[in-house]
Amino acid sequence: MTQLTALGKSPAAPAARRGPGRPRRAIALNLLAVVLGLIIWTLLASIGVQGLPGPLQVAAKAGELIADGTLLDDALASLRRVLLGFLLGTFLAVPIGFLMGWYATARGLLEPYVQFFRTIPPLAIIPLAIVLMGIGEVPKVFVIFLASFLSSVVATFQGVVDVDKTLINAARVLGASDRTIFLKVVVPASTPFILVGMRVGLGSAWGTLVAAELIAAQEGLGFRMQQAQLYYDLSTIFVGLIAIGLLGLLMDRLLLLAERRLTGWQERR
Amino acid sequence: MNAKISFTDVAKTYPVKDGTFTALDRVSLDIADREFVTVVGPSGCGKSTLMSMAAGLVEPTSGGVLVDGVPVAGPGPDRGVIFQQYALFPWLTVRKNVEFGLKLTDLPAGERRRRAERAIELVGLSDFADALPKTLSGGMKQRCAIARAYAVNPQVLLMDEPFGALDALTRVQLQDQLLDTWSQEQRTVMFITHDVDEAVYLARRVIVMAARPGRIQQIIDVDLPYPRTEEMRLSPEFGRIRNEVWHAVYHQAPA
């Protein structure tokens, strides 16, 4: 239920961060924080936390992994899985969410399943998925699909339910049919919710992916880290973590950009 | 009897825990063609419900509403509705909002544009035709909503406390503007308000309603000529009628 409330509020939340770009002071502070972090990391590594590599070692390892193509291959393998699962999940979630929001019958039939599976962390499905679908690509994509599907479906559904009734009445009194109301009022009005759902879905898809790869994979960032763990290769683990973080951040920013483009009409308070 | 809008014994009841709640208790009212009628009353008197029945947004539990002698069955573009919360589509510009209703007709695109242009001009928003609602002030938003209703050329305007959320000055300006267009185009207007001054200033007849159960308390004629002017607000006659309406609204005997 907490997630529901958070979803409901979030379309307005990015508003605070919007504006003609962050002030220079904030960017300077961000950079300062990064530099300070690197210094502390270097210090910790040099005063001898057992086996901890410093930033330079990690950078060197990253260079090595980039040079022999491993990092790119792993990143692409991971991205392919996450995008496939995410796109399938979202494309299915949006129409189903609309269906649930618009038709009480569909809501009654689907809601128990959606609400039930929402409470199960997608990771908990992994053992089942592996038993049923083997250890190939299918179970990983499936789990990612499930993760993004569930957050998008709930957001879309919530978006449709929360469409301002006055807007629907305003369209009705102008002579709009149900079909027009759906296409011209409900769809645009729920877009902010859908995009927030997609962002949450992408985040949870990304998190699920790495975990899925930790268990069974032949390539991918999660798999690489799992391998490195066996050889006590902390540098590779750090490279993997940083790559996961950067890619996740990049994807989130891209969706945020799309969100601002598509929902710039929203009133900010 | 050539009533434009005719309510006959309309009632609205809602089931509640112990029995039924009566929002409207068998109300009958005729509004003549081209008449400007205001409806005032305390909250809970059912004035918005009454208007929504004419709009086709609320169905009476019993009784019926006729518009032009035809029973109301759902909303339609022959009756324009203005809501207190503006109800503009926030993702559309002023022009696109105004064109929304026109696009549902089979008018050719050129004619649609021309009509939208004229409605926008009528409410003085020409300079803001391509602005999004979020950039407009409350008064401008409501003018845009009025233009959207005018554009489809309804014969009846149903207005639900349209100026209730505006500051006093904007409110007076919009009242004058509304009367101005009304005197030119002579639509039938049913205007809901809780502001006694506004009710008297605009209307030919003020319908005073009472609550619990919602019903018509008194109907007060406003014998002031149109066009109404700001000086008229200060006249003794205006004051007398306002006092009468005020008394009817705020000194109701408990039901």
Automatic annotation (TrEMBL), chain B:
A molecular function (GO) term:
ATP binding
| Origin: domain of life | Bacteria
* Gene3D superfamilies tied to this protein: P-loop containing nucleotide triphosphate hydrolases
For this protein, the record's PROSITE patterns field holds:
ABC_TRANSPORTER_2 (PS50893)
Task: Tell me which UniProt keywords the record has, alphabetically.
Answer: ATP-binding, Nucleotide-binding, Transport
Q: Which residues form the ABC transporter domain?
A: 5-232
Protein name in UniProt: ABC transporter ATP-binding protein
